[in-house]
Amino acid sequence: MDLSQEQKVRIYYGLKIALIAFLVAITFNFLTGFSYHGNDDKQENTITFSGHGEVSAVPDIANIYFNINKEAKTIKEAQALVAEIEKKSLDFLKENNILEKDIKTINASFNPKYEYKYETERSIPCTQYNCPPTPGKNVIVGYVASESITVKIRNTDDVGKIMQGLGVLSVSDLNGPNFSIDNEDELKTEARKKAINDAKEKAVVLAKDLDIRLGKITSFNESGNYPVPMYAKGIMNDNMVSESAPAVIPKGENLITSDVSITYEIR
């Protein structure tokens, strides 16, 4: 059946309006952080909104890490030297109110130390034009014992004093502090609530702008919900060890974030 000119014009403008509406929907998706999904099989339409929430708090614990490394002729002697430093370190930590449950050995080991020893006599003599290298072999000359310990400091005001004290006890690789929050569950819950409210506020505004009605929630997803710790690096040096007054270490704040996406059914 042939279409009249007037019918062709109506079809043309109808397609043009549909294309404009489609482009507007894509633009909203890009600018506002929600997405629209059509399901031809179930005849179900959904729309998704994103939300972000964050909570900051002052850290209430600090974690530090250090090694004890000692070398001796025998394994027994090397381990005895490590045990001596370990005892001094543990006594010092307990004197500064560090609980036994907050001190943890995460690694203990010993390894042979080798040196390459050359033979005193050459098996092949030198000539006028060639002098081969003196043969030799690796020989065990001692043993190195090591122990790695982590410490949780619950009174963060004592971090500088404790690290300074450990620094004069011949420990090595003293690292930290890593400031964190001991019980983060309440803060994570608060950040999640903020993210959900953010997504819901977007849903109310944009549903009104798009002239649609939202139905039940069909899906919910969360990402993030983790703390971003503050680190204090490079605080241990010769000046800090030699000074009588311990360094004051700023704790800053930790940021806990949550990102959610909520998908609604469109009625």
TrEMBL record:
Signal peptide: none annotated. The keyword Transmembrane helix applies. It comes from the Bacteria. InterPro entries: 26kDa_periplasmic_antigen, SIMPL/DUF541. Keywords: Membrane, Transmembrane, Transmembrane helix. Gene3D superfamilies: Protein of unknown function (DUF541), domain 1 (3.30.110.170), Protein of unknown function (DUF541), domain 2 (3.30.70.2970). GO terms for biological process: DNA damage response. The chain crosses the membrane at residues 12-36. Pfam families: SIMPL. This is Outer membrane protein. It comes from Candidatus Nomurabacteria bacterium GW2011_GWF1_31_48.
